[in-house]
Amino acid sequence: MNRVYKCFPGGKFKVLTLSYDDGKIEDRRLVDIFNKYGIRATFNVNSGLKNPEVRIDPDEWQSLYEGHEIALHTVTHPTLNRCGRYEIIRELLEDKTAIEKIIKKPVRGLALPNGAGNECITSITSDLGIKYIRQAADQYALVKAAQTYSKVSDGPILLGDENGFSMPTDYMNWIPTCHHNHNIKEFGKKFIKLSKKQYLYMMYVWGHSFEFSKNDNWEIIEEFCEMIGGRDDIWYATNIEIVDYNEAFDRLQFFADNEYVYNPSAFSVWVAVNNTSIVEIHGGETVKLKN
C-alpha cells in the first residue's frame, strides 16, 4: 500500500506566516518590506478606531494589504474576557461586518486584543464563522515565564510564544512561535536548517509595526526577511491560507487501497507518495498515486 504524506503547496514541508496588530501607519513600511522579500502576513485591524495621524484609514486597507490577509482585532480593542457576552458579540460581529464591507471579502480570522481569551469567546467566535484565533495578541499583556528558557537561546520565554515549529493542533487556540523582539533571527536560522522531510514545520511571528519605530529597530525585521525570503523550500502564507489548505487536505477522499484519491475542493493539494514523488491533486480531480 502507498504511504502518503501531506505536503504544502509545491511539495514544500515548511511554512512561514506572520501576524501584525492594530493597523498603525507603520504598517506601510512593514508591508513594503514583506513585499520586497515575498513574505506573506495577516494584519489585524480595529474598524472603530480611526485617527489618520496614527492609524491606516479604512479606505487604504484594500490597496495596502493586497496580497496579504486582513483579520479581526475587534471594533475598539477591549480586553474581551472582562466583557459580557453581548459586548463580545458586538465587538466581533460589528468588526467583521465593517471590514467585509470595505474589502469585499469574508473575514475569518481573529487576533485577540490583549491576549485575553476564554471558552465563551471561542464559542461565540466559532458561531460567527471565524476559523482561527491567535492568542496572546498584545505584547504588553504577556508575562515572562519564570525559570523557563528558550529552546533557541537563554532568554526567558514569553507566555503566548510557543518557541517551536510544530503545526497547531487547535486553530482556535493558535500560539505563535515568537514575537519579533524575541530572538527572531535565531529562530529563523534554525528554521532554515530544518531538513527532515518526514515532518511539517511552521514558523509564526507576531507583533506590532509601531514597535519598530518605538524601539528604533526596523533592522530586525528587514534582516530577518532578507535572510528567510525567496527560499524554494518554504511556503509563504497568510494565517487563513494555512487553515484553508489543511482543511482541503482533510477533505481528500482516499480509496481503500490508497492507490487513488479524489479532491472535492476547488484548489490543489499536494502529497508525497512513498517518499519518492510529489503529486499535485487538482481541485475536482481523481488521481492515481503510483506505487
Topology of this structure?
Layout: E1 4-7, E2 14-21, H1 27-37, E3 41-45, H2 58-64, E4 69-72, H3 85-103, E5 109-111, H4 119-127, E6 132-134, E7 144-149, E8 156-158, E9 178-179, H5 184-193, E10 201-207, H6 210-215, H7 218-228, E11 234-236, H8 239-250, E12 253-254, E13 260-262, E14 269-273, E15 277-281, E16 286-288
Parallel strand pairs: 2-3, 2-10, 2-11, 3-4, 5-6, 9-10
Antiparallel strand pairs: 1-14, 7-8, 12-13, 13-16, 14-15
Helix pairs in contact: 1-7, 3-4, 5-7
Question: What tags apply to this protein structure?
Answer:
291 residues; alpha/beta; six-stranded parallel β-sheet; three-stranded antiparallel β-sheet; 8 helices; globular
Describe the structure.
The protein has 291 residues and is of the alpha/beta class. 29% of the residues lie in helices and 23% in strands. It has eight helices and 16 strands. Strands 2, 3, 4, 9, 10 and 11 form a six-stranded parallel beta sheet that branches. Strands 1-14-15 form a three-stranded antiparallel beta sheet. β14 and β15 form a beta hairpin. α1 packs parallel to α7 and α3 packs parallel to α4. The relative contact order is 0.19.
Strand content: 15-25%
Number of strands: 16
The residue ranges in which pLDDT falls below 50 over 5 or more consecutive positions are 137-159
Secondary-structure element order, as H and E? EEHEHEHEHEEEEHEHHEHEEEEE
Characterize the overall form.
globular
Q: Structural class of the secondary structure composition?
A: alpha/beta
Q: Quote the distance from N terminus to C terminus.
A: 8 Å
Our Rg estimate from Cα atoms comes to: 20 Å
Q: In DSSP terms, counting alpha (H) and pi (I) runs of 4 or more, how many helices?
A: 8
Question: Helix proportion of residues, in percent?
Answer: 25-40%
Mean pLDDT: 90
Largest sheet: 6 strands, parallel
